[in-house]
Amino acid sequence: MSDLACTVKSQTGFVKSNIFSPLTLPCGRAVDNRLVKVAMYEHLSDFSGGPPNTYHFALYSEWARHGWAMIITGNVQVDKHHLTLGRDMVIPSTLTDETLAPFKRLAQVIHGDAIVENGSCSHNSRHTPGNVRPLAIMQISHTGRQSPIVIGGRSPFVPPKAPSSVRIGSVVQRGGEAKSSSSIRPTEEEPVKDERRVDDWFLRVLFQVPREMTTDDIRDVQRGFLKAALAASKAGFDGIQLHCAHGYLLAQFMNPKTNLRQDQYSIHPSVNSLRMLRETVEAVRMMTRRDFVVGVKINSGDYVQAGEHPSDARIQVETNRVLDHIRTMAHWGMIDFIEVSGGDYESPDFMTSKPTSPRQAFFSHFSRAAIEHINGDPAPSNASPVPVILLTGGLRSPAHLQTALDAGHADLLGIGRGSITCPDLPVVLQERLTENQIGYQFKEDTRPFTREPGNELKPPFRLPKVGLIGASFELAWYTVRMRGIAESHIRNDTRNGKSQSHSYPRSMGTTEAMLRMWIWVNRAEGWWLLAFVLMAIFVVIALPTALIMSRQ
Fold first, then answer.
1. Are the CB atoms for 393 and 341 separated by under 8 Å?
2. Hey, is 166 helix, strand or coil?
3. Mean pLDDT for each 10-residue chunk of the chain (552 residues)?
4. In whole angstroms, what separates CA 169 from the centre of its chain?
5. Torsion sign across C-alpha atoms 229, 42, 346, 540
6. Helix 275-287 and helix 215-235, axial crossing angle in degrees, nearest 10
7. Residue 157, C-beta contacts closer than 8 angstroms, at least 6 positions apart
8. Helix, strand, coil shares, percent, the chain, to 5
9. Is 134 helix (H, G, I), strand (E, B) or coil?
10. DSSP assignment, residue 304?
11. What is the maximum alpha-carbon separation in the chain?
């Protein structure tokens, strides 16, 4: 058990918090506290994808030394031809000692056994706070239809694979007819319709119409996930998380707006909608050790159509559907934790900081019921321990964390962007416990862990107010911030023995962040650099021009 116990001595007495209490997962592995650094896309690999490198090692060495109970990597793609933004970590084609070496080093860094200083990775003789040894979890993913043109790892005219041939931005009507998202709700005001037209145009430029997967394609992808899990196990990771959220491939099989199939992987009956995921989980469980952690990231946003403002009755219907999925997964007896998240590229709430969208309200609504349904539903006679719930999103202060646990909304607390602006968040929490007098309560402490970026995240005023565009600028800001953390370790930028990873440029705007995100190389990468310069010019100039033209 961690020395970061749930009872901590303060200056005048004892204060308690179950945030620092241990928890045992169904597979038997234990976490030392409830704080989880969830997956965040790093954008640090070589272009066209590759293994983790020195930048990854440096970044994760910062998180590893601050007492997080579990650290989940950014999504590692199982198919090099289905990338997100070009610099994804990718599972190698063949698993050998040589190809697995970078992944082994990443696992060592996350466990705190290695550290990056002065540009090199070496053995770490220091200990993390409270001797916490984080569980190292590799998030594995396949983008499906959300792999963009060119930077997605394919030739320009090769479409991505998906359950059905439904383009991003299309709205599936009854009978399987797909219509442009800009045509829905025709009674809306003209500026909103203009923004949707630009949004639809933007999606058409970035994403192709996918090719419907054959049964052989499905088998190939399942083998890819299994190979990724085996790679994680051989490399020394404690487990994997299957990315079944944010509109990626596994989520696409579970979603009626993206799955129009009529075979055994169709959306109806409900057992079919989870078949792709279940077969993948079964294969992983069969081929990995008993205490290997298997998690699933599920997406509330996929249960509400992009652009919808659902009624309370509709929210209840969709809540029941997602809870049925969670309940079914729990009764498989093969999953250790389920992370609840929200949003996809059509309505990218997971990429923004806005707390009030209809999808995020839906996310909050069903996350409260998830634990109750898992623990309160009658279990099969051969029941295994049920998975724990990892809640991610909006946990910005001690009060948020404590309330989520006290109210039974979560077993584990996922921190994403907060782990970037405050990498030492577990230490900050400990300091607040030990520095305050008796009677201090986490649930009454609404102070953010650190100052959060405000106006810095606003996209340039001349850009159209389109969800994916604005979210992309926010993503760029946090991506550059992560790179800054890595570079501070590589330079060994320390003062008084403390890394200066927290000294990031608060004044950096989103335009600067977007340019710095794309115009960056960690080695000579030829014409790709020129391609990204042109892309940056396109984002800053071409899109506003399109908006102006659409309003004439």
1. yes
2. coil
3. 43 60 96 96 92 95 95 97 94 97 97 78 66 93 93 91 90 53 44 58 85 98 98 98 93 91 92 95 97 91 54 66 86 93 47 46 58 66 78 83 83 92 92 69 77 67 54 83 90 56 60 82 55 55 44 39
4. 21
5. negative
6. 40
7. none
8. 45, 15, 45
9. coil
10. S
11. 69
